[in-house]
Amino acid sequence: xxxxxxxxxxxxxxxxxxxxxxxxxxxxxxxxxxxxxxxxxxxxxxxxxxxxxxxxxxxxxxxxxxxxxxxxxxxxxxxxxxxxxxxxxxxxxxxxxxxxxxxxxxxxxxxxxxxxxxxxxxxxxxxxxxxxxxxxxxxxxxxxxxxxxxxxxxxxxxxxxxxxxxxxxxxxxxxxxxxx
Length: 180
Prior knowledge:
Helix content is about 35%, strand content about 20%.
């Protein structure tokens, strides 16, 4: 009887410890078909911005990138063009750099004349890795007006092409990717 009580106590203690070690603060992961978790993003001047307010009611093209990534550098001018083509009241292009050096990001953004909102996630440690589950770049999330991730694109695409612009406009109208 003594051992049986001990086993029950041990089981309860183990369950309590396991529960106590779990973290309620673990961020939800971004996944296709689900709402993008709220993000606290650091602007290049150090201000923290809540994505819910910034993204509200717009189709968002959220591009995670790095200055050390050749394809990222190559696609940035096309993202700048896209941001100028799309009406700002309906669409938002956003960059999230995963560089370790903020100065590298600032220099590149100035050199490329990036005009859309740019944020910094040092080393990808707060957003890109835990929320996006990203480990290679560029990686882009497209959100509909309700904040649902309708597509996740690994690699580059022709962002300012007529086809891409048309698809984004359809996402604005329907909330979904156009049928192929």
